[in-house]
Amino acid sequence: MKADIPSTTWSALGSTVVVLTTELPELREAAAAVRTVLAEIDRACSRFRGDSELSQLNAAEGQPVRVGALFIRATRCALRAARITAGDLDPTIGASLRAAGYDSDFEALRPGGAVRFTRAAGWRCVEVDEEAATVRLPKGVELDFGATAKALAADLAAATVAERIDGGVLVGLGGDIATAGVAPVGGWPIRVTDDHRDDERAVGQTIALTVGGLATSSTTRRRWVRGGEQIHHILDPRTGSPAAEHWRTVSVAAATCVDANIAATTAIIRGSSAAGWLESAGLPARLTARDGAVTVAAGWPLEQAAAC
Amino acid sequence: MKGGQPEGARRPLRQTAASQVAAARRQAVLARDAGLARISKVTRWLTAAVVALSCALAVVAANAFSGQTSGSAPAQAESGNKKKDSAAELWAPSQGPAATLESPAVTSGGS
ipTM of the assembly? Predict the structure, then answer.
């Protein structure tokens, strides 16, 4: 990896955190700010922490639950994603994920018996009362913010850091990347590939990002076995089963990391129609098919231009 | 004669006075009716103007303050057409990614 951009890395939210700053003296303060934001997001939105607001809401059996402003924001963010994508991303997928076997922290998952997939309850059943600061779900409905919370955390962290330092900052949470402030000359060099843990030798492409966010969704990560069959974590809310793997990996650039992630994950679920959808939305994207063939949309730089 | 004016001499005078009073009353009635008609006309115009102004203000207010939902409204209240895809609401970057020959500083991949 490039050595002349100050960086630090650690693990959080079940993935790798990377913080880059344009100025070395500001890296420590930036990392501290990011840690604070991530801790707040984890307390609010983790599905695997019994004391999180999300876990308390999922266990409330139809009763309204008093929540904090950050949780309200995360809920609004997830509902916006559902509305924009006409339900292709649906936060009420929580029970479906549990039914599919993703019922604990991913690292703790073990092979199990066959599962019966259950469709999402539908995002319109979520009731948010901002005046009373409560959220209510019908009994049996469970939320999961996997499609938006990490990206929201990256956006919030980058914005928070930008308020405290003078230089530019990049926050990466797994595949979700948010930037703020002035980028280094030539932009932030980023490798897009199947797995965020891969290094620069992995199959993929290196691009330079100057503003906004970048997100990658992939079916190659977070796979587990149930009934002898591989299951991946991107479920189609309409069936509750893993989305058909037309694309194995999709990377999208947008004004924010949240919007990039919404588009990338929706593209996986939409399959063959996704490239045209991204093109019409004007979102630069790189889509990798199961066989490795790459399709680009909306001005994403061509592969050979970046090859070396 | 028992005194006073003869019967034949007094009758025309009474008739003239009565007709003058009646004419005056008719004129007063006509004037009142004309006044009422004017007032009614003005009232109708004022009513129409107020209704038109109210409609115009409602349209202006609806355009100026659109998109707000009440705090207690369920999420479905803010939803639009169920079938509508609102991809245009996803914000494109002001500058897209560019090709580079630099070594990467970070990786974006599945997680």
Answer: 0.81
